[in-house]
Inverse folding.
């Protein structure tokens, strides 16, 4: 595998990308979430890129404007459609043999791809899409129920409850919140749903079972959507060894599909 770096333009800014070369005519475009650089959380995207390229598929990842090595103003994921489209064009230019590109995004990178109606990619892998409008939003009821399931299985937590080290009033308030109905979809979630409804290509939603972001998404998304697949023990960035393997297999399945 050969890894090389290249620069490309996006609306007057210079973006930097990294290409892991391989022979297949299907490639993977990795879109970073949040303000993460293209290596990803704990180097996860760089590691995933190397793994996928070793299976024969070229992988391109990039820093959007104002992030990492790229110049320009960072306007956030809601305004990153041009960055994704420019990266996709640069990927195709660097690998002229490509016939098909699968785009992968985690968290608000998945949201960005949905808002952009796929941004020109041929297929999408969307991990833990971000639907929360504000940082101080209450945890979704599903997240609270999952929290209490774990706490009730922990003998130390039960001991704290029995010895009076847990406030009964706070506990009752949290239990009440855990039993409430899911909130209605946010305007962001509605815009994302409209964007993906206008997309004609295949889609996989990959959800980490222990992630609040994934639980918030699932609470307002149709429960019968067969495109949603959950890795029960995974956290947000799929850092667990079995979750990393699961994610890689899901991505390879999309590439081979």
């Amino acid at each position: 595998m050969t890894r090389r770096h290249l620069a490309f333009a996006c609306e007057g800014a210079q973006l930097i990308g990294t290409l892991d070369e391989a022979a297949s005519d299907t490639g993977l475009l990795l879109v970073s979430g949040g303000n993460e650089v293209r290596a990803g959380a704990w180097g996860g995207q760089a590691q995933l890129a190397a793994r996928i390229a070793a299976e024969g598929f070229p992988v391109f990842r990039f820093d959007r404007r104002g992030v990492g090595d790229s110049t320009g103003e960072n306007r956030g994921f809601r305004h990153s459609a041009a960055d994704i489209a420019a990266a996709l064009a640069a990927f195709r230019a660097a690998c002229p043999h490509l016939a098909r590109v699968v785009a992968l995004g985690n968290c608000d990178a998945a949201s960005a791809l949905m808002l952009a109606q796929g941004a020109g990619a041929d297929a999408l892998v969307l991990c833990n899409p971000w639907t929360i409008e504000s940082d101080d939003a209450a945890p979704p009821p599903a997240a609270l129920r999952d929290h209490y399931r774990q706490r009730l299985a922990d003998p130390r937590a039960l001991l704290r409850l029995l010895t009076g080290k847990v406030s009964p009033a706070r506990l009752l308030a949290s239990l009440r919140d855990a039993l409430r109905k899911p909130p209605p979809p946010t305007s962001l979630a509605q815009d994302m749903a409209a964007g993906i409804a206008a997309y004609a290509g295949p889609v996989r939603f990959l959800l980490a079972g222990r992630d609040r972001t994934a639980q918030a998404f699932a609470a307002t998304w149709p429960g019968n959507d067969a495109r949603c697949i959950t890795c029960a023990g995974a956290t947000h960035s799929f850092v667990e060894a079995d979750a990393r393997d699961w994610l890689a297999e899901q991505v390879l399945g999309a590439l081979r599909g």
Q: What stands out?
A: The CA atoms of residues 81 and 116 lie 6 Å apart. The longest helix spans residues 241-256.
